[in-house]
Amino acid sequence: QVQLVESGGGLVQAGGFLRLSCVASGRSFSLYTIGWYRQGSGEQRELVASITSVGGTNYADSAKGRFTIYRDNAKNTVYLEMDSLKPEDTGVYYCNDVNFPAAWGQGTQVTVSS
After folding, report:
1. Cα-to-chain-centroid distance, residue 66
2. Are 44 and 113 in contact (CB under 8 A)?
3. pLDDT tens figures, 24-72
4. What is the dihedral of CA 16, 29, 99, 3, to 10 degrees?
5. Strands 10-13 and 108-113, how do they pair?
6. DSSP 8-36
7. Number of Cα atoms under 13 Å in the Cβ half of residue 76
8. Cα dihedral sign for 46, 89, 17, 61?
9. Nearest Cα residue to 2 out of 22, 25, 32, 23
10. Tell me: the pLDDT tens digits for 66-75?
């Protein structure tokens, strides 16, 4: 069973930068499309960015031009770089296999102050 561990969140001011990391263990996820999701307080979890096994990327409109997703398959790690952060980016960020989701990890909290 794959286990996902997210890290890198924190408290930043608007306009700031964070880099999130998602490390998978239990299976190699290099063959799978991995996504980063955000869940704001009282909101549903939404897909923010995803990356295919060959590096193709897709972003939610809110993330385009500000977020970059990339992966290091040798390290079983997917990253999400977030620039020009806005208060509305606040939430708990999770990673998971987009098409064959595993159990959700604990996520990492991102808080952007205005």
Report:
1. 13
2. no
3. 987 777 888 999 999 999 999 999 999 999 999 999 999 999 999 999 9
4. -80
5. parallel
6. --EEEETT--EEEEEEEESS--TTS-EEE
7. 14
8. positive
9. 25
10. 999 999 999 9
Token pair belonging to 42: 């009282």
Nearest to 100 by CA among 22, 19, 31: 31
Per 3-state DSSP, the chain is made up of helix, strand and coil in percentages (nearest 5) of 5, 50, 45
Residue written as tokens 């096994």? Answer: 53
Mapped onto helix, strand or coil, the DSSP state of residue 89 is helix
CA distances, 24 to each of 13, 32, 37, 62, 102 (Å): 29, 12, 15, 26, 10
* C-beta separation of 3 from 95 below 8 A: no
Would you say how long the chain is, in residues?
Answer: 114
Contacts of 112 (CB under 8 A, 6+ apart): 12, 13, 14, 16, 85, 86, 87, 88, 89, 90
Cα separation of 65 and 109, whole Å? 22
Give the strands of the sheet with 67-72, arranged side by side: 3-7, 18-25, 77-82, 67-72
